[in-house]
User: Fold these one by one.
Assistant:
Number 1:
Amino acid sequence: MKITQLLGYQVFDSRGKPTVAATLVLSDGTFHTARVPSGASTGRHEAKEIRDHETGLAESLFAGNSVYRACANINELIAPKLIGKTTDLRAIDQIIRDIDGTANFKNVGANAALAISIVVAKSQAHAEGKSLSRFFQPMGALKLPMPMVNILSGGAHAKATMDIQDVLVIPEGASSFREAISWSSAIREVAAIDGEKMGALTHLTADEGGLAIGFTTIDAACEFLVLCIGKIGLEPGKDVSLAIDFAATQFYRDGEYRLRNAGKNYTADDFISHVTKLTKNLPILSVEDPFAEDDWDSWQKFMADVPSRLQVIGDDLYTTNIDRLRKGIETKASNAILIKPNQNGLLTQTLAALECARESDFKTIVSARSGETEDSWLSDLAVGWGAEQIKVGSTHGSERTSKWNRLLELEATEDCLFSRPFSQS
Ligand code: PGA
Ligand code: ZN
């Protein structure tokens, strides 16, 4: 099937900020659309999304955040090269790379590049008569990922009500996806009721649908969630464990980790001890970005003495960039990677990073961004790529539930296995 039309245009993300959408029309007359997300606590080494405060196309309505240039790049630079071609994701990703000519897509914009890559994948799946998950996994079993669900938000997603960015739950003992997400949702509802009793405005949600309950220390936030898990009759550390996304680059200044709410500045070595103590004293199964994006030393020191079951995820550390990942594998900086397609720019390259991680026995967690849309392609990628975990925020907000709902749909309608990536203690 051939591409007859490709259109880039501006739409909104869940923060009300502009983002890029692309619609592709195929020769059978069908329309296919993709919308891309955008981060708030972005890593320095991410592929470059283009916003108009740097292009001269900015208008005052969107405070410079419009994406008209990125859309124009789709319409003027890329579409003319794709009209009449068949939908072949690998070939078209290569055309985008050639048109851009840089490693970080600074010419066409990673937001434009990813919108095209996804819409081409959706169109090719349609042309082959498959769902997007099946397109990426034509033969083997479809595997639903273990969810990692945001309950408490702080940092850049909630005006720093906590120093760290998220405290999440991993329903590691659940035996199906629907059980896993039901447990997580129940924990969030208990946390909302108890948070309200503590005086928090829990009807208001943070950027990823989590609760912005203020906690002075990381321990206090975790202890609160341990109680919530117990209140729904589940066992912390067995049925449901905790995960923390520190997003530590956000509070790293001049070689120190500065926790404003806790009123403490830590040297790198002291912060390593602090994180180690937290993971020993609390049922924490996973830590993400516990150290800053270029503080490789601290990552290595921490990993040298890491508890055996602890998952240590690089997000800003790797920015889904295969060269940074290879450095992390060589230097043993972590044992897991967050996979965010828009940090990378193209689906084929993102998949290459995931496969490289898997070959080195790194755990892989496919992740949404804090600025999302209702598009649910990420869930199909997680299933099709066989990523064992997924992180898309909380259970509130349609930009979040669209991803959970797609996974529930796959569970109900396809013959799927459920990933249980953590050995049960
Ligand atoms: P971001 O946050 O999308 O704002 O970068 C998500 C994360 O840090 O995992
Ligand atoms: Zn993160």
Number 2:
Amino acid sequence: MTTTDDLRAGARTALRHCGVDLAAIDGDLLTARTPVTGETLFRIGGSTADDVDGAVAAAHAAFLHWRTTPAPVRGALVKRLGELIGEFRDDLAELVAIEAGKIRSEALGEVQEMIDVCEFAVGLSRQLYGRTMPSERPGHRLMETWHPLGVVGVISAFNFPVAVWSWNTAIALTCGDTVVWKPSELTPLTALACAALLDRAIADTGAPPKVHQVLLGDAAVGERLVDSPSVALVSATGSTRMGRAVGPRVAARFGRSILELGGNNAAVVTASADLDLAVNAIVFAAAGTAGQRCTTMRRLIVHEDVADELIARLTAAYQRLLVGDPFDGATLVGPLINEAALVRMRQALARATEEGGKVLVGGDRELADTSPNACYVRPALVRMPAQTGIVREETFAPILYVLTYSELDEAIALHNGVPQGLSSGIFTRDQREAERFLAADGADCGIVNVNAGTSGAEIGGAFGGEKETGGGRESGSDSWRAYMRRATNTINYSEQVVLAQDVDFL
Ligand code: UN1
């Protein structure tokens, strides 16, 4: 098992490579901790709520300059950021593994998302297209223009400590906005590394220094950011509970928000499914990242004809999963983020049992003797008699509830019968079944897949979900529009006033 001293040394080296001044992080406000051993790495300084107003004011001043910087020039900053992330890919992945407990391949995958979204945003910097529409009036032109919006407050979660920041920041900077970032308290080191790389990109390209700032701090920092009248857009990733607090507060001051909240993602496995493919996809989506993705598969809705076989194969696969030190190359499932997550997982399993469920495999703590302060757990597969109580809630841990069905309509009803609506999948070889799932009265999520798991979306698509997931969209496609304001322009090049709708006046 990697020791805390190893991790501390690894973190120091990676931070230094990324340009973080180690002396500057010394302080007594926050604890940087690793879930790998469950122990403290460093005590560090940070910001308090009183620092927020100054940061937002500086970001707003930078915005006044940045908004008139040509978009392709703004893109050059993001291009440089992407190059630096590529150069320090291993260091960033190391920090993600240390702070979020991800296995190397997943940590590298997260960093790859950053590079991908930077490339996407660079292309976007020449494609912030507005439409032109035919005017109903002679001698008139009707068109729309997209302008930068203002300061964007980014609030991110521990589980994708760098990728979600990059989705927002690469797009926001390209759109001419400036960013104030409040990362999770659980992952301050990765945030410092990202901010240092972006500072270097800013210096290299001559962009205004305050186009990006990071505020390490507690919930009070996030609250002040949310309430700040100069923050035009709050993009917040976290629990539905957090979103319920953030959304109305931003709306009350007529700010905008992008909410990326809880998921309770399900896959339907039909009788025609390729079970080899389904098993592999399900195990990654349900057990990968120790169940700590917002896209993690939490419910499996299986046709009764294939349920026994699929459950037997999944049970065997779950028993074989290597749970442990994410720095061991053979490990597939790293630790839960902290003790509170373990407690919530146990409570969920206890409730599932009370509600008539049967734990088929997993749920037990592992490595408690060698790593008493860390929370390693075998992913759990739980057969449930109905979609009640706990199955309708998101527990941020590797628990997959299995339900069965006989008709596809029933499966879709079960699928949609939860408050959340992020990601979904169907495993089938029948095109009719697939199309039914993709149709308007099919799956009600923001992400709907066929023969692919619920997690691991590419950055090129819009990411986000419906219902209690919050409705926001980030990263690819036309998500950029949420980071800009639209002006509709009417240009009269005739010599008279012509009123729309044929209105006669004067
Ligand atoms: C998250 O868990 O907040 O689709 C983001 C995925 C990743 C992003 C997850 N690309 O699983």
